[in-house]
Amino acid sequence: MFSLKILIVEDDAVSALLLQKALEKNKHEILGIADSGEKALELLTQNHADIVMMDINLAGELDGIKTTEIINEKYDIPVVYLSASSDAETLNKVVGTNPSAYVIKPFNIRELNMVIELAIFKDRKEKELQKLNNELEEKVKQRTVELYDANKELTKALEKEREINELKSRIVLNVSHGFKTPLTSILSSAQLLQIYGEKDHPFKIKIAKHAGKIENSVRALNNLLTSVLFFGKADADQMKFRPKKMFMGAFLKELMDTLNAGKENDVEIKMETGNIPKTLTTDSELLYQIFENLLSNAIKYSSDGQKVDFNISFENGQLISTIRDQGIGIPKSEQDQLFDRFFRAKNVGIIEGSGLGLSIVKKCIEVLKGTIEFESIEGKGTTFKVTIPVSK
């Protein structure tokens, strides 16, 4: 672990002292402890800091969020938020300040060290990327001025390069966010489980609660990895149609069990099956990917008390299914991007996701030579209709 110059901004003297001791134990230099945003800014005018540990709830006119906004604008120093709260409202407040990391109290030294290392690494890589982008943009401008009139094909190539860079940036943003949130939850819950596990039965409910959080976070991380591996196969042209006989009853039961186990809200899945044969022949893995992603999205973007209708039937050699939800819907202006990789609509807010699910659905349907249609109204819900050719 390398030594860093760290400013602590914490209005609770005991918490500040404990944090100072933990950081000094790992050979970091503490520039000072500020109990207000105003004092923190004053210290930064006098000393250079490598990183700032910022309590969100500060007394005075400048809370942690406002202070961070000023630090971002004037000093461009990575900030790690400290908070005893991990609720959606708090996360929604801090997301606009682009913090380098977010630590939930109480924390242990190992977790703290890991978060600081990740924050410094993220900051350095972002600055390196910004420098490279600036250099690239300057070169592009110079080349465009010199060659635009003589060679329009060069302009097209530069535009393609810009699109590739934007795609890379979106990959970094979505994947890093997808990893950071589940891992933070796993670390925090594991820490609490260690504490509760030392006690007797009165804490069993809490243990179960945090164990559930770990399970859900691991599932989210596993889904993300599965999605990335899926497209690795697709891009390498390894996606093949492998039909085999499957038992529809067992297939649907496994699908519903998985969806119900992974639900984090109170949304009912109402499944209705039509005249479906006991067995069908198709690629069950691709079919599972289609239904699991569509139904998971329908659940995730619905609210407590709403329901998702899942109708599936067999007609004229085709498996026909509709998935209808009453959730947030898709803005009309963005519907033509729905199946693009890493696309996430502007109205998803803080709902987690990688933007890969519907891209996977589209790719699987293409391999199965099926079709997908959808209708959506923002604020009222979305309906998908999938038709897959199968054989008995």
Please render the helix and strand layout as text.
Layout: E1 5-9, H1 13-25, E2 29-34, H2 37-46, E3 51-55, H3 64-74, E4 79-83, H4 88-94, E5 101-104, H5 109-147, H6 152-197, H7 204-235, E6 244-247, H8 248-262, E7 268-273, E8 279-282, H9 284-300, E9 307-315, E10 318-324, H10 357-367, E11 371-377, E12 381-389
Parallel strand pairs: 1-2, 1-3, 3-4, 4-5, 7-9
Antiparallel strand pairs: 6-8, 9-10, 10-12, 11-12
Helix pairs in contact: 2-3, 5-6, 6-7, 8-9, 9-10
Quickly describe the structure.
By secondary structure, the chain is an alpha/beta fold.
Question: Could you list some keywords that capture this structure?
Answer:
single chain, Rossmann fold, five-stranded mixed beta sheet, 18% strand, 51% helix, Heat Shock Protein 90
Q: What is the average of the pLDDT values?
A: 80
- Give a short account of the largest sheet: 5 strands, parallel
What low-confidence regions span 5 or more consecutive residues with pLDDT below 50? none
CATH architecture of one domain: 2-Layer Sandwich
Strand content: 15-25%
Q: What is the oligomer described by this structure?
A: single chain
Structure commentary:
The chain has 392 residues and is an alpha/beta fold. Among the domains are: 111 residues, Rossmann fold; 146 residues, 2-Layer Sandwich (Heat Shock Protein 90), CATH 3.30.565. The protein is built from ten helices and twelve strands. The strands form three sheets. Strands 2-1-3-4-5 form a five-stranded parallel beta sheet, with helices on both faces. A five-stranded mixed beta sheet has the order 7-9-10-12-11, covered by helices on one side. Strands 6-8 form a two-stranded antiparallel ribbon. Strand 3, helix 3 and strand 4 form a beta-alpha-beta unit. Helix 5 packs antiparallel against helix 6 and helix 6 runs antiparallel to helix 7. The longest helix has 46 residues. The relative contact order is 0.07. The mean pLDDT is 80.
